[in-house]
Amino acid sequence: MPDVYVAAGSNVEPERHLALATEELERAFPGVRFSRWYRNAAVGFEGEDFINFVAGFTTELPAREVRARLQQIEALCGRPPGAPRWAPRTMDLDILLYGDQVSDEPGLRLPRPDLLKRAYMLGPLAELAPEVRHPTEGLTIGELWERFDRAAHPLIPVPAATRRRSDRRRPPGSDR
Fold first, then answer.
1. Which pTM does this prediction carry?
2. CA 7 to CA 111: how far, in whole Å?
3. How far is CA 97 from CA 2, 78, 123, 125, 139, in A?
4. Could you list the residue range(s) of the whole structural domain that residue 107 is in?
5. Does residue 176 fall inside a structural domain?
6. Which of 20, 33, 37, 102 sits CB 3.0–4.6 Å from 158 for a disulfide?
7. What's the CATH code of the domain at 17?
8. What is the per-residue burial (b if ≥16 Cβ within 10 Å, else e) of 67-95?
9. Domain count, the chain
10. Alpha-carbon gap, residue 119 to 151, rounded angstroms
């Protein structure tokens, strides 16, 4: 079964929507693990800060079915189908990695092309799965994060008190 990593983000009532997303991810993908939550500035438009995390799980579902389930969770969080890309959103769930699969299909580009450009994706992924090898770069996620210009893209950890349920599902030792 492939390991799947998904980025989650919200800047509209983010604590509420991310808590709902964690519950739904736990329901859809038993054994899901979560990174810490991070606050960062909106990218690509002016807007409220986002809160982001990365979830990881194994599944027998094909990538397209995982994407369909993620879209259902987005809808439960109030994101309408076809919502604009560069705008405030209640929930954004994107597959970053699906095992070592490489795909350039419309709607399912793997690995996620902007993974290596976005601190809010790469940083939490490196926390959760530093040893995973990027399928096209040949380096581990931890190595890629070490090389990333973190000063230009700061991530601010969200205090545990505001994170709700996902705190109970983080792997041991992830409080770094």
1. 0.90
2. 12
3. 9, 25, 14, 10, 14
4. 3-168
5. no
6. 37
7. 3.30.70.560
8. bebbeebbeebbbeeeeeeeeebbbbbbb
9. 1
10. 10
